[in-house]
Design a protein that fits this description.
The complex is a heterotetramer, with two copies of chain A, one copy of chain B and one copy of chain C. Chain A is an alpha+beta fold. Helices cover 34% and strands 31% of the residues of chain A. Chain A has one domain: Mth169, Chain: A (2-Layer Sandwich). By secondary structure, chain B is of the alpha/beta class. Chain B has one domain (4-217): Class I glutamine amidotransferase (GATase) domain (Rossmann fold). Chain B has helices at 16-26, 69-79, 89-97, 130-133, 152-160, 208-217, and strands spanning 4-9, 31-35, 44-49, 83-87, 103-105, 113-115, 118-121, 136-138, 141-143, 147-149, 164-168, 179-183, 189-192. In chain B, the strands form three sheets. Chain B has a nine-stranded mixed sheet, sandwiched between helices. Chain C has two domains: 1-75 and 213-394, Phosphoribosyl-aminoimidazole Synthetase, Chain A, domain 2 (Alpha-Beta Complex); 402-565 and 580-761, Phosphoribosyl-aminoimidazole Synthetase, Chain A, domain 2. Classes of the chains: A alpha+beta, B alpha/beta, C alpha+beta. Chains in contact: A-B, A-D, B-C, B-D, C-D. Chains B and D meet through loops of B and helix 1 of D. The structure holds adenosine-5'-diphosphate and magnesium ion (MG). The site of adenosine-5'-diphosphate (ADP) has 19 residues of chain C, from strand 4, strand 5 and helix 16.
Chain lengths: 80, 219, 763, 80
């Protein structure tokens, strides 16, 4: 299975990098709203099946390692 | 055997030797380096989680280091009331481990900052206060991710329990309420972005780190 | 004739060696004949690649080696402090004795072309490369510096982008490993537009008995590969222009290498731990450019042995790499280590502790050949010594560029005498020029305090670090310099002045020079004008080093720094390391209140090639300032004598921006900005006011003292001209020149000087 | 429109961060293949329509600001 985990700052956490990108877009006259969010993707493959147990292990991985629940949210996509 | 200050060494630590020398050579206090794969801290009287780039600071600063066996020992040590101080990357590791509240993110200038830094001393504990340390101290910083973040409830908690140790006089990184260092509620786990071990010798920007490290060790 | 090698297991490599391939690998027809002569047969495709990198300008110093023979490589008195323990060119970096059985090892290296393509990664891997050169020698890195050159960031967005990326890259790599960056130099000039220079220096410390050699000796000793896996990094280069050499399209072959400072930190610690084990390491060499090729060929050559490796055993990051790709890969953070047979477990255990794999890929063998097999099939079989040492060396034709005489003949009299309004406005204009302005924007991004030994951070004349050596302490200073305008106008003098300025910077900081490393950044050597610059600059360095008895312990040559339109100004960057005897001798450029300012050396009296001419008259011309080696020796000795006697509170040499700029910088103190009243009435009336205030040239140091009489009489005794030129004020921050209407607020000057670079970079 | 740009290292460019995460997963006994890739997402909103012109401007933005074409590839998703 291919797994892609998306990690983003929680909505109310300041994102300094996003803000800087927003400002840079404006100075390039790109017509975006200045509120930009920069996040991370982590991609890897796992042998095996997409079972509820597996999802439990994956959630634990996301909570413990791949994201910091104090400031970040995650979600993932699993594809074959 | 003497009780010693245990300085944890992770792959990528780079202020471990500096912290060791601040205790061993300047404070003349026995100190020992503890490899991150060690499961015990030996006869430690206090623990330093030093600065650097543990595991390259990949993913998030401190995210990988917190799983090291020695960190499990540090957690137990802290749970039993042992004194722990995280400096810079060590502060980040303690936050990631849940030993300290909040999190540290990218500096708002998005650049690394290495400079002398004046801090306002807060009255936090019987030893960490203006009386012992003075109104203000000059302790250098060197970090790219020292922007302290915590939610409103958490901040209110910190203020109420006097858990804030220092605030930046001029905020170098966007840190919430100028927070430069905090402690846990119990008062035995400390974390700060500035480097007291770089403020202990005559040629350093100041020698304010000496009193600070002594205050940390004080019973 | 020798028998041909069997076909390569990768069929794309079994092609006929055509004249086009020979040319695209950078060989002249006669060089190719030499290869055939060495092999006694036609080379295989992989061998052609191996020869091309070993005989490239970068590895073989084809067009510079003959010139470099003019450098002094040893102290005149071999028993003096500063004895050369490992000479330039012998190993990865030179080593100099600093007493008590300790030594320093230092070298500078360029990463100009990679930084032009990708500033962040280019600069980062440049730092990584020079750090490996140092710890390969058994030394623990103690400090870094960098010499940078960019186009004019005031007008060029491209130059700002490059500067931002380069500084971030250096910061990323050095900070992570934890080596303080204590100084550097940077110039901004149009000639570097699109051709930035990124030269990085590392200095490490070691005991004499820790010096390691990069030699493969002892038949049967295992050859280990440690560090990062090999990928197709850096294979976008010239030789790969012919795409039939790889199954992978050029798009998938990144032309730039990407660094991993964390991996390098692990390698550094593991290698130093390994080298501490008595008798375990036989030879060690990092894999820099042309990693596997260079390290196997050179270790075998130095050990006068044969070496055999099997490429299937080489850790690989990508699938399907052929022998050509593996041998020429420029992946970073890799080392080759030869250990004593029977002690394999010891190396494997140490690397396992650091979560690294040490993989045996071959062994030292009888004979003198470098033998590479892939899937068991021999693909390279070359006499190692001839490959490593027999690269053709050339002396190109040199021709003095016409601009040199034109500039030399420029007459200052062609310029109207400056009126007071111009003299008034020149100082802030010069202090705001990015080349003179404060460089804090750069060094605040570098960790310059890690290791907790930095005594002088960037910002004064030299960087100074306290070295903790067992139970001893020593103080090392380092200065970098090179004024490109001088070198363009007169490469011989310009290069000599770079040496002199480093010596002056060291003296002002209280340090006595030990040894020099240089980075020769020039244009295409096949252009006679370019070659002239190279040749004359080397002569200037060599003569200055010989005069001052400063051995050259290593360096780097970077040629072809030019775009179709423009070659860079010749830039032989120089770095000199020195020792400070006692910590109390460490001196900065910051004067205190109520001190006298004394000028040591002649009154400034020249305008040629000054920043003043460039900035206020838009003229990059004139003769390079004159100097006499002997007079400057006296000046340096005097300065050091005054410092060791405690008679000097601050010292600063006069360089870009002239006397007034230097005085202003002395007033921009650590805690406050102070004022001064200058009295220049002792200067001969014949000197033009603009030349006096803003003229540049070596041989002048301003000192601040509380005992001007003692300084003046010491100068008289030594035969150094000296004059009291003013006093710092007891209060306020006005800088004025008595007898004139010239007056500035030093605090305002400082603001412009501090804001110049940040306001350009943060806009 | 909501725009989400994905930036990843080119296939053959070393991803030290991914490698470190891969090793960390292994030491946590998570059963993934060690070859992990870490990328970036940049999210923002733009008023207006998804026209070919707009895509041209967006491509330029991705090339000039959001990715480094020497070592990175990008792709984007546009949703209403
Ligand atoms: N690229 C750089 N990196 C770090 N420090 C630098 C760099 N460029 C200049 N500096 C520091 O800024 C200070 C002033 O440099 P410079 O203007 O070249 O002075 P000087 O003319 O006295 O040599 C020095 O301390 C130098 O080390
Ligand atoms: Mg200079």
């Amino acid at each position: 299975m291919n797994i892609r985990v998306f990690v983003n700052y929680k909505k109310n956490v300041l994102d300094p990098q996003g803000e800087a990108v927003g400002r840079a877009m404006q100075s390039l006259n790109f017509p975006a709203h200045p509120h930009v969010r920069v996040g991370k993707t982590i991609e890897f493959t796992v042998d095996g099946q997409d079972t509820p147990e597996f999802r439990k292990t994956l959630d634990k991985l996301c909570n413990d390692l791949l994201s910091n629940p104090v400031i970040e949210d995650y979600r993932y996509e699993i594809s074959q | 055997m003497d009780m010693h200050v245990a300085v944890i060494q992770f792959p990528g630590s780079n202020c471990d030797q500096d912290a060791y020398h601040a205790f061993a050579s300047v404070l003349k206090t026995p100190a020992k380096l503890v490899w991150h794969k060690d499961k015990t801290l030996g006869d430690a009287r206090a623990v330093i989680v030093p600065g650097g780039f543990s595991f390259g600071d990949y993913l998030r600063c401190g995210a990988i280091a917190r799983f090291s066996p020695a960190m499990q020992a540090v957690k137990e040590f802290a749970a039993n009331g042992g004194k722990v101080m995280g400096i810079c990357n060590g502060f980040q590791i303690l936050c990631e481990s849940g030993l300290l509240p909040g999190a540290l993110i990218r500096n708002n200038c998005l650049e690394f900052r290495c400079q002398e830094q004046w801090l306002k001393v807060e009255d936090s504990t019987a030893h960490f206060n203006k009386e012992t340390l003075g109104q203000r101290v000059n302790i250098p910083i060197a970090h790219g991710e020292g922007n302290y973040r915590i939610d409103e409830a958490g901040l209110a908690e910190l203020e109420k329990n006097k858990q804030i140790l220092f605030r930046y006089e001029e905020n170098p990184n966007g840190s919430l309420c100028d927070i430069a260092g905090i402690r846990n509620k119990a008062g035995n786990v400390f974390g700060m972005m500035p480097h007291p071990e770089r403020a202990v010798e005559p040629f350093h920007p100041s020698q304010h780190g000496v009193a600070l490290l002594k205050a940390f060790l004080a019973e | 004739m020798s028998a041909p090698l069997p076909p390569n297991p990768a069929k794309e490599l079994n092609v006929a060696i055509t004249p086009e391939l020979i040319k695209s690998h950078g060989f002249q027809p006669d060089e190719y004949d030499l290869i055939k002569d060495i092999l006694g047969r036609e080379p295989t495709m992989t061998e052609l690649g191996v020869f091309s990198v070993m005989w490239s300008e970068h590895c073989s110093y084809k067009n510079s080696r003959l010139l470099l023979r003019g450098f002094p490589m040893e102290k005149k008195d071999p028993n003096a402090l500063g004895k050369v323990l490992v000479r330039a060119g012998e190993e990865n970096a030179g080593v100099i004795d600093i007493g008590d059985n300790w030594a320093i090892c230092f070298k500078i290296e360029s990463h100009n072309h990679p930084s032009a393509v990708e500033p962040f990664e280019g600069a980062a891997t440049g730092v990584g490369g020079i750090i490996r050169d140092i710890f390969t020698m058994g030394a623990r890195p103690a400090l870094l510096t960098n010499s940078l050159r960019f186009g004019d960031i005031r007008t060029s967005a491209q130059s700002r982008r490059l500067l931002r990326g380069v500084v971030a890259g250096i910061s990323h790599y050095g900070n992570c490993i934890g080596i303080p960056n204590v100084g550097g130099d940077i110039y901004f000039d149009k000639s570097y537009e699109g051709n930035p220079l990124v030269n990085a220096l590392c200095l490490g410390t070691l005991r004499h008995d820790q010096i390691k050699r990069g030699a493969a000796t002892g038949i049967g000793n295992p050859v280990y590969y440690v560090g990062a896996a090999t990928g197709r990094d850096g294979l976008g280069g010239a030789a790969f222009a012919s795409k039939e050499l790889s199954e992978t399209s050029s798009e998938d072959r990144p032309a730039v290498q990407k660094g991993d400072p964390f991996m390098e930190k692990l390698l550094l610690e593991a290698c130093l731990e390994l080298m501490e084990v008595p008798g375990l390491v036989v030879g060690i060499q990092d894999m820099g450019a042309a990693g596997l090729t260079c390290s196997t060929a050179e270790t075998a050559s130095r050990g006068s042995s044969g070496i055999q490796i099997e490429l299937d055993l080489v850790p690989q990051r990508e699938t399907g790499m052929n022998s050509y790709e593996i041998m020429l890969s420029e992946s970073q953070e890799r080392m080759l280590v030869i250990v004593t047979k029977g002690r394999e477990k010891e190396i494997e255990d140490i690397f396992a502790k650091w979560d690294l794999h040490a993989v045996q890929i071959g062994e030292v063998v009888e004979g003198d050949e470098m033998i590479v097999t892939h899937h068991g099939v021999p693909v390279v079989k070359i006499p190692a010594k001839r490959l490593a040492d027999d690269a053709p060396l050339c002396m190109q034709e040199a021709k003095e560029p016409a601009t040199i005489a034109q500039m030399r003949d420029w007459k200052p009299e062609s310029l109207q005498p400056a009126d007071e309004a111009l003299l008034q406005k020149a100082l802030p204009a010069l202090l705001n020029h990015p080349t003179i302005a404060q460089k804090r924007w750069i060094w605040q991004q570098y960790d310059h305090m890690v290791i907790a030994g930095t005594v002088l951070s960037p910002g004064s004349d030299a960087g100074v670090a306290r070295l903790r050596l067992g139970d001893k302490e020593k103080y090392v200073a380092i200065a970098n310099d090179c004024n490109n305008s001088y070198c363009k106008a007169d490469p011989y003098k310009g290069a000599a002045i770079a040496v002199i300025e480093c010596l002056q910077n060291l003296a002002c900081s209280g340090a006595r020079a030990l040894g020099l490393t240089d980075n020769l950044n020039f244009g295409n050597p096949y252009k006679p004008e370019s070659f002239y610059y190279l040749k004359e600059a080397i002569k200037g360095l060599a003569e200055a080093c010989t005069f001052y008895d400063i051995p050259v312990t290593g360096g780097n040559v970077s040629l072809y720094n030019e775009s179709p339109e423009l070659a860079i100004d010749p830039t032989p960057t120089v770095s000199i390391a020195g020792l400070i005897e006692k910590p109390e001798h460490v001196t900065t450029q910051w004067a205190g209140r109520g001190q006298s300012l004394v000028l040591l050396g002649d009154w400034p009296n020249e305008l040629g090639q000054s920043m003043y001419l460039q900035e206020l008259h838009d003229l990059k011309t004139g003769a390079v300032p004159a100097f006499e080696f002997g007079k400057i020796q006296k000046l340096i000795d005097l300065t050091l004598e005054l410092i060791t006697q405690g008679k000097v509170k601050a010292a600063h040499d006069i360089s870009e921006g002239g006397l007034l700029s230097s005085v202003a910088e002395m007033l921009f103190g650590h805690n406050e900005t102070i004022g001064a009243t200058l009295d220049l009435s002792q200067a001969p009336a014949s000197i033009r006011k603009d030349a006096l205030l803003y003229g540049e040239g070596p041989g002048r140091i301003i000192v601040a003292t509380t005992d001007a009489d003692a300084v003046l009489s010491a100068a008289r005794a030594k035969g150094v001209p000296a004059a009291k030129i003013g006093e710092t004020s007891a209060q306020g921050s006005e800088l004025k020149i008595s007898g004139t209407a010239l007056s500035w607020d030093a605090a305002a000057l400082r603001k412009g000087w501090e804001d110049a670079i940040p306001s350009l970079m943060n806009a």
